[in-house]
Amino acid sequence: PDVGPCLEIQAAFMQFTISLYPGKVHYVDLILGSTTEILRKHCGIGGTEKLSGSGADKVVDLLSCPLKTLSLSVLEMEHYPALLNYLDFHTRKKVAISMVKIVTEDNHTLATVEAVNQLFRFIEPLLRDVPDTPPTEGHDKELFAFEQQQVAKLAHQLRGEDTDMEFQMITAMRGFFGQGGLQRLVFTLPPTFYAALSLVPKIRAAEQRRAEGDEGPMPTVTIKKVFQFLHKTVTALQSVAPEAALQLWLVAATSADQIDRSSPNPGAFEPICYEFLTQALVTFEEEITETFKQYGCIFNMAGTVAQISCLEEENFDMVSQKITQ
User: Fold this and answer.
1) Contact between 264 and 209 (Cβ < 8 Å)
2) How many other C-beta atoms can be found within 10 angstroms of the C-beta atom of residue 102?
3) What whole-number distance in Å separates Cα of residue 94 and Cα of residue 86?
4) Residue 84 has pLDDT above 60, yes or no
5) Which residues share a beta bridge with 87?
6) Whose CA is closest to 204, among 133, 166, 260?
7) Residue 273 CA to chain centroid, in angstroms?
């Protein structure tokens, strides 16, 4: 049977309800639930069969309407994700992009690990290959890059109540990005790196306040643990985007040097800084082969080492010699 007229009535009812009761999430979920029942009982649609044509368009209208007014609240609804299951891959991805844009453009905050998990499960078609992902996904390089760049912006929406919570959220986000394959990691890992790096000065400030007698809680996630996370993140990027990875190694080394300067124990972060520089050299020697790219990398490495002051003399000489060979 033609499901279009039924869905058109549901979409009109949804618009009416939201205009009359803009903050009533429960009312919206009831309409979505009744729509799900229409599709399941009367239309015989379910399982692997997906809506198409005008029927799919009406479902998108039903999903988009509360998205614009309730934003992240839709993730708490029981029937919102259930209705998504009746759409094909491209239509689900369209709804996912709409959600990402609303979160980033309206500057909505992701404040808990559960919020991160809910959102990233919702936008799954953008994050990894699912059973109905078409084999042509990613062939349009420009479109694929645009979509992944939108996803990457989500890294800047994580704002926890403290650094421990933020690190948990970043770790959860990294777990989702890790399922995306190499072609997606190029876009999603660099902002993940910088989101984690932003925790370093916050943790140091909290440690200093505690040392000065502040009774606030000491962060359980240490600066060294964040640096370990950065190391793993850049390592995953190294083979697929070596130039970007090399730049991130240098940024991490500079950060370690800056933290060492303000540390009550000078030299505590010297081994970490040296490790990051060593990995930059390994990336340069093993992954970057084109002459003009090598020139730019040498310039960047030399500039970074010239600014670093925490290295022991022997390690400084070794890194310098490697760069100038």
Assistant:
1) no
2) 18
3) 14
4) yes
5) 51
6) 260
7) 26
